[in-house]
Amino acid sequence: MKVLVIAPHPDDETLCCGGSIIRHVTRGDEVHVIVVTDGRYGAPKEELRGSKELVEMRMRELHRAVRRLGLTPNDVTFLGFEDAHVKYRVKEVTDALRDVVRDLNASLLYSPLPYDGHPDHSTVGKIVTGINVMTRFYLIWIPIGTRKVGLLPLRRWKRVKVNIEEYREKKVEALNEYRSQLGGLTRILERLTGKYETFYLRDTSTP
């Protein structure tokens, strides 16, 4: 099986489905990761935000992390769109994602949900819903306050829980490579490093 993991930012691939990536690799599946943005604004340290230094740092962290997951840097495509600007580049991102899916002939995608609370994630998710390949959608940033209403459509989606207990330690090791990010991920790490990884299938999909 050819699997494509779509990550809006470096680290999303590990947060959402690091255990599942290891599971696929262990089973002999071909796994590729596509990172949409450069992550230049994602850092707990304000002085790093927007800098070329942060972009380069996150790329190095990404390469170290995927090695922990059983991949190599050659298994990663870095599109390099500006962080936080996906909603302004929908056509270009759509064309790029479609090209990669076609070139890899992927039969299973992992993508953020179109209802994720982060605008880069939700925009990528909306784009992927238009690609006719079986997709497991993941949720990282839960909308807060009244925005939680946006999750109501999930009631029509099928939820799948993948047991990653035997791969959990390696997933955590991969996450620890993202040293520039860990201070800002505290509130979601507990939810995303448990025994299961949770995905959602559209009601027209099958697991």
Automatic annotation (TrEMBL):
InterPro entries per UniProt: GlcNAc_PI_deacetylase-related, LmbE-like_dom_sf
Name under which the protein is recorded: PIG-L family deacetylase
Record SUPFAM superfamilies: LmbE-like
Origin superkingdom: Archaea
Leader sequence segment: none
Listed Pfam families: PIG-L
Native species: Metallosphaera prunae
Gene3D superfamilies xref list: LmbE-like (3.40.50.10320)
PANTHER family: N-ACETYLGLUCOSAMINYL-PHOSPHATIDYLINOSITOL DE-N-ACETYLASE (PTHR12993:SF11), N-ACETYLGLUCOSAMINYL-PHOSPHATIDYLINOSITOL DE-N-ACETYLASE-RELATED (PTHR12993)
GO molecular function term, any single one: hydrolase activity, acting on carbon-nitrogen (but not peptide) bonds, in linear amides
